[in-house]
Prior knowledge:
Elements: H1 3-19, E1 25-30, H2 32-44, E2 50-53, E3 62-66, E4 80-86, H3 95-104, E5 112-118, E6 121-127, H4 131-137, E7 140-141, E8 144-145, E9 147-150, E10 162-169, H5 174-182, H6 186-194, E11 198-200, E12 203-204, E13 217-220, E14 224-234, E15 240-247
Amino acid sequence: MTAQEDRLFEAKIEDCLRLGEKRPAFLGFLDLSERAYAEEYLRRAHAKNYRFFGGFPEAERTVLGVFPDYMEPLDEEFPVTGLTVKFRRQDVLSHRDFMGSFLAQGVVRASLGDILAEEGRAVLFVKTELAPHFLSQIDKIGRVGVQITKGFTDPLPQAHSFQPMGGVVASERLDCLVAFLAGTGREKAAQMVHAGLVSVNHRETDSVSHRVNEGDIISIRRCGRFIVDMLGPVTKKGRLSVKCRKYI
């Protein structure tokens, strides 16, 4: 986000905090970067009674809920509704197909949570106020006929698949990990970091010496997103073994 976008987003969080002193207040859906920014801001503001929820525990797009001290931030308090989309198994629909169709109909991205698609079924999460529109007005995604109903059943469609990666790096420094993940040299990796092309845990990081930890998520523009699963042990040559997974 630009500095102006940061200020605008902070103002929205401040409004949510102010309103949340008297009644539940909500902001989002937020993407992973926005959520990370909001969490950082809320920590600085010493906010306490808040929670992020996107319809299911592993949701990537979530709504920020701020609650008065006397209220517990429960799932059912959030204005999030899950919908099931059924279509013929021979018709292949991807996340991009759903997004393109919804945006073409004027649905704002911030009103949409995760969209989980599989063969013959998709589950999507929307702001509750928009659910009637989806249920009554949408019967096609592109040229494919669909039927949308309220609610969903477990297990949910898998959100991601992963490609395992393994190798060795010189150290836990960010430029070392970026070089390994992007398949380039450390000098080029350092340039990518300084250019603002790399994020760690959804926050842009411009320090090549930033120490990467197990569990961190590294995003490299035009290369993809990766989870660092294991750092170590050290090899006989003094290098660090690393295991990661790439989102595909």
